[in-house]
From TrEMBL:
InterPro entries: Aliphatic_acid_kin_short-chain, Aliphatic_acid_kinase_CS, ATPase_NBD, Butyrate_kin. GO terms for biological process: acetate metabolic process. Transmembrane segments: none annotated. One of its GO terms (molecular function) is butyrate kinase activity. Keywords: ATP-binding, Cytoplasm, Kinase, Nucleotide-binding, Transferase. It comes from Vagococcus zengguangii. This is Probable butyrate kinase. It catalyses: butanoate + ATP = butanoyl phosphate + ADP. The keyword Kinase applies. Its EC number is 2.7.2.7.
């Protein structure tokens, strides 16, 4: 059956909207949200109406009749740690998304907006492989202090989707391969995929890993404590997430703007560009150690991979460790649709949160 689904993916810098009929995409629109627009809203939940209206406007512009839909599917948010899969949006799931039980991020709106639209048309709503998919091995859970355990918060949906793409390119199955996958978007997550399980990954929202277009990544903690000892919590958080990385150094979260500055001869922009590639490469190297060098490929994905020079810069550091596979952008929309289609076709049951 060719079920039609509306797919909604709120990211930190964009909202992606698509309609699928079976596997076929009927349309996709990527709405970009410049930092000035996002900054107007103090809380993520304050963006609910603005993003919902923007999505409905896209659908209207495409003259698509929402009565044709069988389901609405949204990118899952910061719930409690759960296993990989497709989950039905329930009251309990929505409550935890609203509370942000594991933190605040735009993807918390995915399930909420999906359900808002689905309820109007009396159809089900789902989330797939939310950012809290947790397959960490015991060793990866150590933070270095008994008081804190590391957690698995990363771009699980795209990691899994791109893992399957890489395996297909290599003529095999995802759960037979070992990959280091680096998702390079507004936030960055670099993970060790061992036979289909993400056994280690930097927390993309937790002050770990490389800096990214808008995240600081790991910072020198002692000096950071001194710097921020008089600051309110939300200012500290925004310094790490939202106003870190490229935004902090260059005032933009857009790598294309950075490339333009470099083309105009801006030396600082060049140094920051090189530093981001350097930190990401170092994290890839760390994950190659996690897999004890038994790696079938290093996979680079996300919006930053549309930049040939950025990919080239990372490749120079890491290509000696394993073959490089580049999947620019992401297949999150396709993966969300596939997750919903499997449930609609009764190939799988939707999991209950
Ligand atoms: N053609 C391109 N060339 C260089 N950078 C790009 C290109 N397209 C997107 N990007 C960069 O990718 C980043 C966003 O990646 P994306 O995966 O869309 O992020 P998110 O989903 O986290 O919002 C931004 O820094 C953006 O400037
Ligand atoms: C891992 C949490 C989700 C996230 O960081 O997504 P973006 O990079 O799209 O902001």
């Amino acid at each position: 059956m060719n079920f039609e689904t509306l797919v909604i993916n709120p990211g930190s810098t964009s909202t992606k909207v698509a309609v699928y009929q079976g596997k076929k995409q009927l349309f996709q629109t990527n709405l970009c949200h410049p930092i000035e627009e996002i900054e107007k809203y103090p809380q993520i939940s304050d963006q609910f109406d603005f993003r919902t209206q923007a999505i409905l406007k896209v659908v209207e512009e495409q003259s698509y009749d929402l009565n044709r839909l069988s389901a609405v599917v949204g990118r899952g948010g910061l719930l409690r740690p759960i296993e990989s899969g497709t989950y039905e949006v329930t009251e309990k799931l929505k409550e935890d998304l609203r509370l942000g039980v594991s933190g605040q991020h735009a993807c918390n709106l995915g399930g909420l907006i999906a359900d808002e639209i689905a309820q109007k048309y009396q159809i089900p709503s789902y989330i797939v492989d939310p950012v809290v998919v947790d397959e960490l091995q015991p060793l990866a859970r150590f933070s270095g202090t008994e008081a804190l355990e590391r957690s698995s918060i990363f771009h699980a949906l795209n990691h899994k989707a791109v893992g399957r793409i890489a395996a297909e390119k290599q003529g095999t199955d995802y759960d037979k391969q070992n990959y280091v996958i680096a998702h390079l978007g507004g936030g960055v997550s670099v993970a060790s995929h061992e036979k289909g399980r993400v056994v280690d990954v930097n927390n993309a929202l937790g002050g770990e890993g490389p800096f990214s277009p808008e995240r600081a990544g790991g910072v020198p903690v002692y000096h950071f404590m001194q710097l921020t000892k008089e600051w309110p919590q939300d200012k500290i958080y925004k310094t790490l997430v939202g106003k870190g990385g490229l935004v902090s150094y260059l005032g933009t979260n857009d790598l294309r703007v950075v490339e333009q500055l470099i083309a105009e001869g801006d030396q600082k922009a060049k140094l920051v560009f090189d530093a981001m590639a350097y930190q990401i490469s170092k994290e890839i190297g760390a994950n190659c150690a996690v897999l004890k060098g038994k790696i079938d490929a290093i996979v680079l994905t996300g919006g930053l991979c549309y930049s040939d020079s950025f990919v080239q810069s990372i490749t120079e550091y890491v290509s000696w460790m394993a073959p490089i596979i580049v999947v620019p952008g992401e297949d999150e929309m396709g993966a969300l649709n596939q997750g919903a289609q499997r449930v609609l076709a009764k190939i799988e049951h939707a999991k209950q949160y």
